[in-house]
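User: Run a structure prediction on this.
Assistant: Running it now.
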Amino acid sequence: MSTVVDKNPARRASSLQQARLPGWAPYALVVVSLGLGAGIGTALGMGNPFQMGLLAALVFIIASYALGAVVEGSRQARNRLATSLVWVCFLLAVVPLLSLIWETIDRGRTVLDGYFLSHSMEGVQTILPGGGAYHAIIGTLEQVGLAALIAVPIGLLTAIYLVEYGRGRLAKAVTFFVDVMTGIPSIVAGLFILSFWIIILGFSYSGFAGAMALAILMMPIVVRSTEEMLKLVPDELREASLALGVPKWRTILKVVLPTAIGGITTGVMLAIARIAGESAPIVLLVFGAAGINNNPFEGAQSSLPYYIYEQWQLGNEASFNRAWAAALVLIAFVMILNLVARGIARWKAPKSGR
């Protein structure tokens, strides 16, 4: 029996091609879904834009799958369904974040100016406009800085030990306790420093006491992030350095750490961002102060999280405005730290190419 083969390549190629939706189809579906979501929401009496957005997302997912199944087949329809779900979940995660940032900017900019950033609350009646967060900014910078000075070296050295030297029971015990410390509530860290540093040893309330509690919260994050970054360094780099007769400690210092410096710096900045917003240890150990205290080792201090809590607790319009402005300053502080971290990581990262 002979087989007839179509020798026309154009006809053979066209028979293998499948119908595809045009590139503008997803965008048109978004517009149609938004319109249908708004229409259905209005018909059902929904006045909340977020509820209408959820309806539009549901319509978009169903329409993408149905249209893909009709035009492109079931396989491409399932692919479009997965893609639509990913985009919808991404938007569900981003929308609350953008809403929070917009609300903070909108409310905080009413009193955020040079006066607010350069004055404290000493001598200011809390029910009246005025005052600022300068003392809280100073306290946050000093407490977070001291916590980083304590936690970063210990965290880095612990991670280096676990990756480069750690073997046996000691390494397993260290790993276990690092995992346990990761889940410690901030109030527990504050109570530990309160009982040990203030009650047992008899030291006074100070910014340094709060910094020690923040360091406890920061250390496991530094250890874990640094450990994962060091594991990503190829073993070939270590072996090449050792083969040249370079001692192991120098290999770690000159080869391993510079290779992983970008990820390590990012992990440290994430740890700083984690503790910058903590208020529970500060309430227990620092007590807050209306005036400026530049000495973190003696006397009560304030911080931006404590200042926000304190102003919101007062419950009047002027204090609410100061709380929103301080929240905006705290967000800007964390954002600047992340930008600095990316700059350092890019500067210190190993150069590629010739």
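The chain has 14 helices and no strands.
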